[in-house]
C-alpha cells in the first residue's frame, strides 16, 4: 500500500435543510453510516449551533467521519477518512446521501500519508484544489 | 465569498515519534494551535491507540482541527477546516510544525461548499488527488 489513509471530502448540496439542522438525526445517520461501512466507532461528539447548523465527528479505529452543516444553504461538508482496505466508504456515503435527501454531490478523494520514506520533496509544497 | 469553508489537509512527515505517541501532549498542542489561530474551541476528544498512535478532534465554532498519528512512520495527518476569514490557519500550522519537530510538510488546500446555487454540475463528480 502506497498511502496510509484515504480521505473522501464530500460536498452534499440541495439536502433536506430540516434534517441538516437536527443534531439527533445527524448523530444517528453518521453512527449508522459508520456501522454500514464496517468501521469501528470509538468516540463521538456533536454540537448544535444557534440559530442553525450542526457540527459532528466520530473518531473510528480507522480515522474519522465528520460533518458540518449549513441548513440555510441546504449544504453539508462531509469527511470520511479511513485507513486500511476493509472499510466500504462508498456504501456509507450512499447511505448518508439517501438519509439526507441529497440531490447533488461532489467527491474529492485524497490519499493521505505517503508510506514510502524518505520523501523526495521540498520542505513545503502547497496545492489549491477547488471543489465545485 | 465564493466558498463556505477552507480546508487544509496537511501531511506532517519526519516528526518526533515520541510526541506523536503522547496523547496529552498532542491535546495540548492542538488546543494551543486552536487558540493561536483565533478560533473558538467547543468540544474535543482524543484517543490513544495500542501499541501506538493517537487520534484527536477539536470541534471549533468555525469547523474543526483533527489529527491522526502513525509514530512508526514519524507521520501525522492534520486537518484544519475553517470558515470565515478571521482564522489564521497558517499561524496554527507553523506552531504545530514547531511543536512536533516536523521536518517535511505538504499542504493541500481545498475550498469547501460552493456558495453559489444552483450548481451547474452533474450528479456525482469524483476527482483523485495524490498528496506526496
Task: Give your account of this protein's structure.
Two copies of one chain form a homodimer. With 132 residues, chain A is of the alpha+beta class. Helix content of chain A is 23%, strand content 45%. Chain A has helices at 17-20, 23-37, 89-99, and strands at 3-13, 41-48, 54-60, 63-70, 75-82, 104-114, 124-130. The first copy, chain A, has a six-stranded antiparallel sheet with strand order 2-3-4-5-1-6, covered by helices on one side. In chain A, a hairpin with a 5-residue loop joins strand 2 (41-48) and strand 3 (54-60). Chain A is globular. In chain A, 47% of the residues are buried. Chains A and B meet through strand 1, strand 2, strand 3, strand 4 and strand 5 of A and strand 1, strand 2, strand 3, strand 4 and strand 5 of B. Strand 6 (104-114) of chain A pairs parallel with strand 7 (124-130) of chain B, so a sheet runs across the interface.
